[in-house]
Amino acid sequence: MNWNLVFSQFAAAALTVRWTLLIALVVIAVLVGGYLVLEKPSYKTSWIMLLPGTDRSATLNLDNLGESRTSGNNAYGSVSISPKNTYKEIALSDAVISRAAAEYGVEPVAFSKPRITLIDQTPAMKFTLKGESQDELVYRANLYNNTFHQTLDELRQNEIERNFQGVESNLAEAKARLNAARQNIVAYQAGSEVISDQQFERWLDDLEQLRTEHASVGVTSAQLGATIATTLEQLSISEQQARELLVIQSNPTVHSLLETLSVRLAEQTSNNSRYAEQNPLRRQLDAEVNALKTRLRNILADYSGLVKLPESQLFGLLSENAAQSIQQVNELLAEFKGLQAQGDILSSNLQSYGDRVRAHTQAAATLADLQRDHQIAEAIFSSALAKLDTSRLDIYATYPLTQLLTQPGATLKRDRLQAKLMIVAGVLLYGLLALALILTEVRRRLGMSSAHTATGNTNFHAAMSMTYAR
Question: By the 8 A CB rule, do 44 and 413 touch?
Fold first, then answer.
C-alpha cells in the first residue's frame, strides 16, 4: 500500500472540507460549553470505616475441677469469610436502604445507594455518597451511617439474646446434673463405710506401712536369731540353759558356794600333790568338796537344763568371767522374743488391714466413680457459668467493632465526573464526525477520478475506430 498517496488524499480531502470541520467543531464546543454552564452542581462525600480484628479470651481455672476458657476468634481468621464483605452486603441490603429511606421520607428507589470500596490488605471500607446539595448530602450521609450502625447493633443484640438463652439452658441442665451427682454421693456415703477417697487412701498407706514394718522386723529378727545361734554355739549351751544360768548367777547362795568351792578345789589340788590318798587331811578336804558339790547340785536340781551340763563346764559358766556373756546372750534372747512378738502383732494387723482393704475395694472404686462424675458435672457447671459471665467478651466475633477514620460529611468535594465525561464525549464525537466527513470526501474524489478515467478511455477507442475506418 502506498501510504504517501493515502495521506495525500486525506490531506486533500481535509482541506476541501475544512470549513465544514470548523463549523462542526464550533457547534460541538458550544454544546459542551452550554452543558457545562447549565449543569447543576453535584457533590460527593466519602468516609472510611475500620473493622479491627477480635481476639479476646477469658480463662477460669478452679483447683481440682478443671479449666474453663472462653475466647473470641479473630474475625479475619478465615480467608473465605471476611467481615468486610459481610458488612458490604448488609450496608447495601434492602433492609438498611428501606429504613434509611423511610427516615429520610422518600421511597427506597429514590434513596441512592452509596458506593462501597473494599481496600485490599487492610480492614478498611470506603463509603462514597453523591448529592446535589451540600447540606442535604451531609444529612443523608449521617442518616445512612447511623442507620447502618443501628442495624449492626440490633444484629449484635439479637445474637447476645440467643447466646444467653442457649447458655442459660445449658446452665440449668448442668446445675441439675450437678445436684443429681451430689445426691448420689450423699446417698452412697450414708450406706457405706467408705465416705471419701482420702479415707481409703489412708487405709492403703497404713497397709503399706505395716507391710514395710513387718518386712523390716522380719529382717532384724533373722539377723538377731543368727547372732544368738552363733553365740550359743560358741558357749555350747541352749536357750533354756542360758536363761537358767542367768537366774542362778543372780542367786547369792550359789555365788557363796562357788567361791568356797573354788577355794577348796585349789586346796584339794595342792593337798593331792603333797599328801597320799589315805591322808586324813586330804580325805577331810575331799569330803568337804563333795559336800559343797552336792549342795550345789541340790540347788541346781530344779533347773533341768543345767543338770545335763558337765561339772567343769557348769562351774565355768557360773563363774564371774562368763557372767557378762550369759547376760548378753539373755539380752539378745529377750530382744529376739520382743521382735517375734512385734512380728506376730504386725502380721495380725497386716492381715486385718488387708482384709479391710479387700472388703472395701469395690466400695472405694464406686465412690471414686461417683466423685469423678461429680467433678465432671461441677466442671461443666463452672464452665457454663464462666461462659455466661464472659460471653460478653466475644459479642463482636460475628459483627466486629467498627471505627470511623473520617466522619460522614466531613469532606465534601465537587463531583466533576459528568463534566469530564461530556468533554471526552465531545472530543470523541468531533473526532468521529471529522473522520466521517474526510472519508466521505475521499470517496467522492476517488469516484470522480474513476469517471474521468472511463471517459478518456471511451474517447480513445472512438478515435481508433475512425482511423481504421478511413
Answer: yes
Condensed to tens digits (0 to 9), the pLDDT of residues 308-328 reads: 666 666 666 666 666 677 778
Q: Cβ of 384: how many Cβ atoms within 10 Å?
A: 21
Give phi and psi for 114, each to the nearest 5.
-75, 160
Q: Which three cell numbers stand for residue 231?
A: 553365740
User: Dmax over Cα atoms in the chain, in whole Å?
Assistant: 227
What is the per-residue burial (b if ≥16 Cβ within 10 Å, else e) of 395-420? Answer: bbbbbbebeeeeebbeebeebeeeee
* Greater model confidence, 52 or 221: 221
Task: Determine the Cα angle at 214 with ends 212 and 215, to 5°.
Answer: 65
Q: What is the average pLDDT value for the chain, to the nearest integer?
A: 75
Q: What number of other Cβ atoms are within 10 A of residue 294's Cβ?
A: 10
With contact defined as beta carbons under 8 Å apart, do 138 and 45 qualify? yes
Q: Give the model's pLDDT for residue 460.
A: 45
**Residues in the chain, total:** 470
pLDDT of residue 354: 83
DSSP 275: S
Q: What are the grid coordinates assigned to 275, written together?
A: 599328801
Digit-coded pLDDT (tens) for 34-48: 766 666 667 888 889
Read off the DSSP letter of residue 73.
P
Q: What is the DSSP letter of 391?
A: G
Residue boundaries of the structural domains of the chain: 3-42+416-469, 49-183+398-404, 205-363
- As a whole number, mean pLDDT of residues 1-7 equals 66
Q: Provide the 8-state DSSP code for 403.
A: E
Backbone angles phi, psi at 318, to 5 degrees: -85, -5
CA distances from 17 to 20, 24, 26, 127, 389 (A): 5, 11, 14, 50, 86
Beta bridge partners of 124: 50
User: Strands 124-131 and 43-50, how do they pair?
Assistant: antiparallel
The continuous run of DSSP H or E covering 117 comes out as strand 115-118
Contacts of 270 (CB under 8 A, 6+ apart): none
pLDDT digits (tens, 9 = 90+) for 395-412: 666 778 888 888 887 777
According to DSSP H, which parts of 191-251 are helical? 197-235, 239-249
Rounded Cα gap, residues 152 and 137, in angstroms: 23
Task: Tell me, rounded to whole angstroms, the distance of Cα 413 from its chain centroid.
Answer: 54
Which residues, 6 or more positions from 327, have their beta carbon under 8 angstroms from its beta carbon? 246, 249
Measure CA 383 to chain center.
14
> Residue 22 and residue 223: Cα distance in Å, rounded?
136
Location of C-alpha cell 467498627: 402
Q: What is the mean pLDDT of residues 47-64?
A: 65
